[in-house]
Amino acid sequence: MHHFSYRDGVLHAEDVSLAELAVDLDTPFYCYSTATLTRHFQVLKKAFAGLDIMICYAMKANSNQAVIKTLADLGAGMDVVSEGELRRALAAGVPARRIVFSGVGKTAAEMSLALREGIACFNVESEPELELLSTIAQRLGETANISIRVNPDVDAKTHVKITTGKSDNKFGISMTRAREVYARASKLAGIRITGVDMHIGSQITTLEPYQQAYRILGGLVEELRADGHPITHVDIGGGLGVPYRGTNDVPPHPDEYAALVLDTLGHLNCKFVMEPGRMIAGNAGILVSRVIHVKDTGEKRFIIVDAAMNDLIRPTLYDAYHEIIPVSEARNATLNSLADIVGPVCESGDYLAQNRPLPQLEPGDLISVMTAGAYGAVQACTYNSRLLVPEVLVNGPHYAIIRPRQTYDDLIGLDRLASWQH
Ligand code: LLP
Questions:
Q1: Nearest to 328 by CA among 4, 8, 29, 23
Q2: Ligand 1: distance of its center to the CA of 207 in Å?
Q3: Could you write out the DSSP letters of every residue in 219-283?
Q4: Active-site residue 121, yes or no?
Q5: How far is the C-alpha of 256 from the C-alpha of 205, rounded, in Å?
Q6: Atom of ligand 1 at shortest range from CA of 379
Q7: pLDDT digits over 258-290, tens only?
Q8: Which atom of ligand 1 is found nearest the CA of 313?
Q9: pTM, whole model, 2 decimals?
Q10: Position in ligand 1 atom list of the atom nearest CA 239
Q11: Which ranges constitute the DSSP H helices of 266-334?
C-alpha cells in the first residue's frame, strides 16, 4: 500500500502532482511520501503490539534527515552501521537509548562515540570486535550493552548479494562458537550482556527462513540462560520484503510475521528489537525521470532517460525489478511493446529495466520508477560526473526539498590540485 496514484490523468504523490514537481525541480528526483512512511511504521507497530518491542529503523535503507525524523517522531529507534549513520540519527534528535549499532567493522573511534552517547546496544559480530569494545569501554569508564550476532546458517532464499545468514557470509558468529563467545564476554570488563541478535538477509518474501532461524535462536537463548547469562532481549533482524512487482509478489503481512515471532520466541518472556529498513521505506519512494531520446535499432527499442545506474543501482547490482510507469495516465494506456529503459552512463549495465513491456514513450515524457524509497538515493554516486539528484518529501498538499540537487561547483569543488600543479 502506498500513496502514489493517478489523479486527473497525472501521477501524484499524495496530493502533489509529479508533473508539477518536475517543472519546479527539474528531473531526475526522488520523491517520498510521509503518509506511506507513517502507515508502514504504524502497521508494523500495531502488528507487534502484543510484544515488548523496539522497532529500530535500519537507516541504511534511506538515511535522509527528514525521513528519519518522520519515523523518530512516531517513536522509531534506529539501527546504525557507521559513525555517519550514528551522527545522522543523533542530528535528527533520535535519543541514543533508542539506537542499536550493527555491522562487522566497527572501529575504535565509532565505538568511542557510541559509548559516549550511551546507545542502547552494540550488535557484536566477532571476537576481535568484542575484545576491542571491552578495551575502549574500560578506557572511557563506560559499559557497553551487547548482544552477539549469531549466524544461524539459514538460507533466506533471497538474492545472493543480500543473503547474510549463511555460514559463508562474513556476518555474525557461528552457532557452534556462540556459547564460548558469550562465556568470554561475561568475563570482559566494560561489557554487559543483554541480548542475542540475528539477521539472515533482506527482501525475504516468505516466513519459512525466519521460522527456521527463530527456532534455532530460541534454543540458543535457553542454553545461554542456563549458562547463567542474563538474556533480556532478542534482536530478530530486518523486516520482510516488499512487492516490487505490484500485486504479483505480495510478501506476508506484518501480522503473520508478528504471529511467527510470538509462536517461536514468545515463551522467552523477553524484550525484542527489530531492524526493518526496506518494508518501511521501500514503496514510500519513487524516482522520477524524463525521457531524453527513444532509439529503435530495429532489433530493440531503447528508451533513454535522464536517470541512470548512478542514481539507482539496484537493477544493475541485484538484477532488481522496479515497476516503471509513465506520469501521464494517457501514456500508460497506450499499447505496450518490449523496451529497455536505460540511462546516459557509458556502461551496458546501465539500465533501469530490460525487455519490459512498456507503453509508447516520447522524448519529454516523465516516468516514475516505483518502490525506490529504500536503497535508492543512499546508494547513489556521481559516476560519469553526474550530480546527485534531489530528494523531496511530500505531506498531503505540501512538499519540501529535503536534499537539493548537487551543483557542479559542489561536485568539482571536492577535488584539489596537487601542490606542484598550482
Ligand atoms: N539489519 C541489518 C544488520 C542489515 O544488514 C540490514 C540490511 C537490515 C537490518 C535491514 O534489512 P531490510 O529490512 O531492509 O531487509 N542494498 C540492498 C539491500 C542490502 C541490505 C543489507 N542489510 C538492496 O538494495 O536490495
A1: 8
A2: 16
A3: HHHHHHHHTT----EEE--------TTGGGGPPPPHHHHHHHHHHHHGGG--EEEE---HHHHGG
A4: no
A5: 12
A6: 16
A7: 999 999 999 999 999 999 999 999 999 999 999
A8: 24
A9: 0.96
A10: 13
A11: 278-281, 314-318, 329-332
Give residue ranges with CB within 6 A of ligand 1: 58, 60-61, 79, 102, 162, 164, 199, 202-203, 238-239, 275-279, 314, 318, 375
* The three cell numbers locating residue 131: 575484545
Rounded CA separation 358/18 (Å): 20
Amino acid letter, 208? E
Which of the residues 56, 270, 346, 381 is marked catalytic?
346
Residue corresponding to grid cell 531526475 = 28
Query: Which domains are present in the chain?
Result: 4-32+282-412 (2.40.37.10), 103-274 (3.20.20.10)
- What pLDDT digit, counting tens, does each position of 200-220 carry? 888 989 999 999 999 999 999
In contact, 88 and 68? CB cutoff 8 Å: yes
Residue closest via CA to ligand 1's atom 22 equals 202
Instruction: Report which protein residue has its CA nearest ligand 1's atom 8.
Output: 238
Write out the chain's pLDDT in tens, 422 residues.
899 999 999 999 999 999 999 999 999 999 999 999 999 999 999 999 999 999 999 999 999 999 999 999 999 999 999 999 999 999 999 999 999 999 999 999 999 999 999 999 999 999 999 999 999 999 999 999 999 999 988 887 788 877 777 777 788 899 999 999 999 999 999 999 999 999 988 898 999 999 999 999 999 999 999 999 999 999 999 889 999 997 767 899 999 999 999 999 999 999 999 999 999 999 999 999 999 999 999 999 999 999 999 999 999 999 999 999 999 999 988 888 999 999 999 999 999 999 999 999 999 999 999 999 999 999 999 999 999 999 999 999 999 999 999 999 999 999 999 999 98
Distance CA 73, CA 330 (A): 39
Return the residue matching grid coordinates 539528484: 389
